[in-house]
Amino acid sequence: MTATILDGKATRDAIFDDLRKRVTELAERGVTPGLGTVLVGDDPGSHAYVRSKHNACKKLGMNSIRRDLPADISQAALEEVIDELNADPACHGYLVQLPLPGHLDEGAILERVDPDKDADGLHPVNLGRLVLGKPGSLPCTPLGIITLLRRYDVPIAGARVCVVGRGVTVGRPLGLLLTRRSENATVTLCHTGTKDLAAEVKRADIVVAAAGRAGLITGEMIKPGAAVLDVGLTRTENGIVGDTTPEVREVAGHLAPMPGGVGPMTIAMLLSNTVEIAERGLSA
Ligand SMILES: Nc1nc2c(c(=O)[nH]1)N[C@@H](CN(C=O)c1ccc(C(=O)N[C@@H](CCC(=O)O)C(=O)O)cc1)CN2
């Protein structure tokens, strides 16, 4: 068996086509949705992601506001930038690119973002709304994973899902999303304390590998025909590698590869959240 590829780039492009129409409709009502980014420091990966976000805004006819800040910025100065974006009516939604340099209090910065402008869905208020099933921005990578599964008709309701990795951007919120009534999956959240990872993975109809450990999930751990989404990203001398080994493709029924699977969906969901915030502003 060779897995059907869950193509994140093609799916992102289809989502962009839909978003372009919504941006045009908003423009007809006098609103141009605006996305802000806050980037601290010189990490080349973070710079590349932020660049992609601004390029995507341009493609869709959205405004974008960029705040690039020095690596040694103080907590107080960064908080001032956050306060400015909170007050800027042209900025409908924004994000603080993670990770932040170690001297900054990341939690305090994320909490300072106006939850109703939180394009990333990572503000504690929005994570709380997710727990309570109330409307709010949803975290982009988990939302991208569910959108990709739906696009390829991979059954979610009743599926056993094994999420490997308990990070705040992917694993934890994904567990919450998948166990909503609308998704109805049964989720096992695995982490470094899991006793028999191979056994947990083997039971799953859907495996999400988001531990950030290259090659952690091997072909023999996968139930034949399962859907596997590789979200781990490790940069090596030979390029990017994911959390799954190449043989997984021969066992899985569906595979979101690294690269080209979930990553492009993250940016699509970020723009979708921003357009949604702008639409909400008009209907409020
Ligand atoms: N505030 C946030 N910070 C970070 C997030 C996030 O969602 N919000 N996620 C990641 C970085 N990220 C977006 O910000 C991101 C990561 C990867 C990709 C992507 O398209 N990856 C490609 C391959 C990577 C490459 O070529 O360098 C892929 O999977 O095909 C997009 C966005 C951490 N920080």
Automatic annotation (TrEMBL):
Tetrahydrofolate dehydrogenase/cyclohydrolase catalytic domain segment(s): 6-120
Pathway(s) the chain acts in: One-carbon metabolism; tetrahydrofolate interconversion
Catalytic reaction annotation: (6R)-5,10-methylene-5,6,7,8-tetrahydrofolate + NADP(+) = (6R)-5,10-methenyltetrahydrofolate + NADPH; (6R)-5,10-methenyltetrahydrofolate + H2O = (6R)-10-formyltetrahydrofolate + H(+)
Any one GO molecular function term: methenyltetrahydrofolate cyclohydrolase activity
CDD domains: NAD_bind_m-THF_DH_Cyclohyd (cd01080)
Highest taxon, organism lineage: Bacteria
Listed EC numbers: 1.5.1.5, 3.5.4.9
GO terms for cellular component: cytosol
Binding site for NADP(+): G165, R166, G167
PROSITE patterns: THF_DHG_CYH_2
Pfam families with a match to the protein in the record: THF_DHG_CYH, THF_DHG_CYH_C
Keywords: Amino-acid biosynthesis, Histidine biosynthesis, Hydrolase, Methionine biosynthesis, Multifunctional enzyme, NADP, One-carbon metabolism, Oxidoreductase, Purine biosynthesis
GO BP, sorted A to Z: L-histidine biosynthetic process; methionine biosynthetic process; purine nucleotide biosynthetic process; tetrahydrofolate interconversion
General function of this protein: Catalyzes the oxidation of 5,10-methylenetetrahydrofolate to 5,10-methenyltetrahydrofolate and then the hydrolysis of 5,10-methenyltetrahydrofolate to 10-formyltetrahydrofolate.
Similarity comment: family membership: Belongs to the tetrahydrofolate dehydrogenase/cyclohydrolase family.
Complex formation: Homodimer.
Name recorded for this polypeptide: Bifunctional protein FolD
Designated gene of the protein: folD
